[in-house]
């Protein structure tokens, strides 16, 4: 199961600071459903949430390893991170 799916199903508790609040969850869902989205576009989709708020929330989601930025500053965007399977010995 992907990390993104675990969040959607409420499975990320305890391990990531008690899960995500509703603001972070809505931003994460927006990024997951719109791969490559820019902060400005996410703000519009989230009822014009302040860009400064979006940027703080993006930083928090990124620090938790849930999203990543790909591409250049001008053309890049944000993507949900897929959980990588650990190899077992």
Can you describe what's shown?
By secondary structure, the chain is mainly α. It has a single domain, classed as Arc Repressor Mutant, subunit A (Orthogonal Bundle), CATH 1.10.10. The chain is 43% helix and 9% strand. The protein contains four helices and two strands, in the order H-H-H-H-E-E. The chain has helices at residues 3-8, 22-33, 39-45, 51-63; strands at residues 67-70, 77-80. The protein has a two-stranded antiparallel ribbon. A hairpin with a 6-residue loop joins strand 1 (67-70) and strand 2 (77-80). Helix 2 (22-33) packs across helix 4 and helix 3 crosses helix 4. It is globular, with a radius of gyration of 13 Å. Residues 12-17 have low confidence and may be disordered.
